[in-house]
Write a structure and sequence with these properties.
142 residues, mainly alpha, Arc Repressor Mutant, subunit A, 7 helices
Length: 142
């Protein structure tokens, strides 16, 4: 794969690394848990952790269609990872929050990702890792 990466432009290089890392994290989770959680479901769980957003707000904050977001939320509810509740004074929109099981899954997954970050640090060095993170955080003015 390294040879293929040398010929990619920045956009495709970032995309390939993202796909690679998401695949690794998904496999790490699914190899150690009885609860299958897709990458899209993880995006939604991350938006909900320690919050009680509305389904509408989640749909706007993830790059997933409204219908797909609703489907993923229903799947997560069916797995016992989140609960859906009505909002006061609003019968149309609903809010969601993680269950204790959902929060535990999120925290375990964060630990798996931290171990993966440690492997990256061991390979590229802490200084390079910090630089990479800073570059990715900076406003690129696009």
């Amino acid at each position: 794969m390294d040879y293929e990466l040398h010929n990619l432009d920045l956009i495709d290089l970032i995309s390939e690394r993202h796909i690679e890392l998401r695949g690794i994290t998904e496999k790490l989770w699914n190899d150690t848990s009885d609860i299958y959680i897709s990458n899209s479901e993880w995006f939604i769980i991350a938006r909900i952790y320690k919050k009680q957003p509305t389904i509408s707000n989640i749909s706007k904050s993830v790059d997933i269609s409204r219908q797909a977001t609703h489907k993923f939320i229903k799947n997560l509810e069916g797995k016992g990872l989140l609960k859906i509740s009505n909002l006061e004074n609003n019968k149309k929109d609903k809010c969601v929050q993680l269950t204790e099981l959902g929060e535990g899954c999120y925290e375990r997954n964060q630990a798996l990702k931290a171990n993966l970050e440690k492997k990256i640090i061991d390979k590229i060095g802490l200084d390079q890792f910090k630089i990479l993170k800073e570059i990715l955080k900076v406003d690129w003015g696009l």
